[in-house]
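Re: weekly structure request thread

Next one in the queue (423 aa):
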Amino acid sequence: MRTVPPRSAGRLLYAQSGGVTAVINATAAGVIETARARGVPVYAARNGILGALREDLIDTSKDSRAAIAALRHTPGGAFGSCRYKLKSLEANQAEYARLIEVFRAHDIRWFLYNGGNDSADTALKISRLGKAMGYDIRCIGVPKTVDNDLAVTDCCPGFGSVAKYTAISTLEASLDVASMADTSTKVFILEVMGRHAGWIAAAAGLAGDGADAPPHIILFPENAFDEVAFLAKVKATVERVGWCTVVASEGVRNSAGQFLAEAGTRDAFGHAQLGGLAPVLAALVKEKLGYKYHWALPDYLQRSARHAASKVDAEQAYAVGKAAVDYALDGMNAVMPVIVRTSDAPYRWKILPTPLARIANREKKMPRGFIRRDGFGITAAARRYLAPLIRGEAPVPYGKDGLPAYVRLKNVAVTRKLEPFAP
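Done, posted below.
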């Protein structure tokens, strides 16, 4: 039986980082509800690590049990997120000193950072911070990313729901195109997220099975784009089927390693910002083949579609939040709760701790065995991996206005004790 720390034993600080998902708030609910059950007060940092640096903290005790429970079906980031990467301790001692100052001022003894690859790196740095600066702080990374590219974990919370949305959208849009192809659109292109790993694009393959079933072409960032082969495949599909659905990952590159859609700018993490692959491909189809086309860019829609969330994904998102609190309060440091698949059929999984050092700054791409030999589709092995992750529905409650009844927390600010700081 776990011991319950007395209230004087400190507070837990939780923060969300990077692009949010349809289920990241389910993780927040898992964190807050588990900490409350163990008698530990929870603060949240407003807008991720920036909130910690700015001493912009939220007292989650001001929100009711019902409001916290409603986070399980509410998309977005309830406390705000950010794209901000801490440099090394040697390169930016001022920010690390500020974090310790804020932690000490508010008796923060546990820090949980909920994010992807860059966030795992930040969590690892902070986990080492206390020892270096003489402050007792336990830090746990909490997995989240629609890209599904975190190392070690079987899948990432957030991915199952975007995979379900992508498969559904591919199926529904293809029915539309098939209806109009005789006199209108011949080629439909759906661009999905995925800078370096093609997991989301691969999920579109669940929409159908067989040579004539959509999507007829999937473009993965793991493969160099071959214009001649692509156009030949589009032409052959239209001639055989009458139309063609293409799903392309935003991170598709040419043989020289350049993004086909690079906009020439970079984000806060130093990543190249992409300007839109779908219109590039559409223009190519029009110029070389003369087919009428339509393209779509779901962008934020794919990661915020809580109404189409996967039940498995929602359950896993809550479970990693719960486990993260238990690990922290039980004395662990510099670990992340990861999902371990124990069976494909029936699908079974469990949560286990893994050192952050095995996850930070590493990227899990699609295995070669998941991509068809022609490079334009998924294999049976990929289907076995992906299919369980989109199973089940996680319905949202609807209000009288016909819209989902999502919650907005009070997010009452904690009184500041320190001088202002500009990261």
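The longest strand covers residues 335-343. The chain has a mean pLDDT of 93.
Next request, please.
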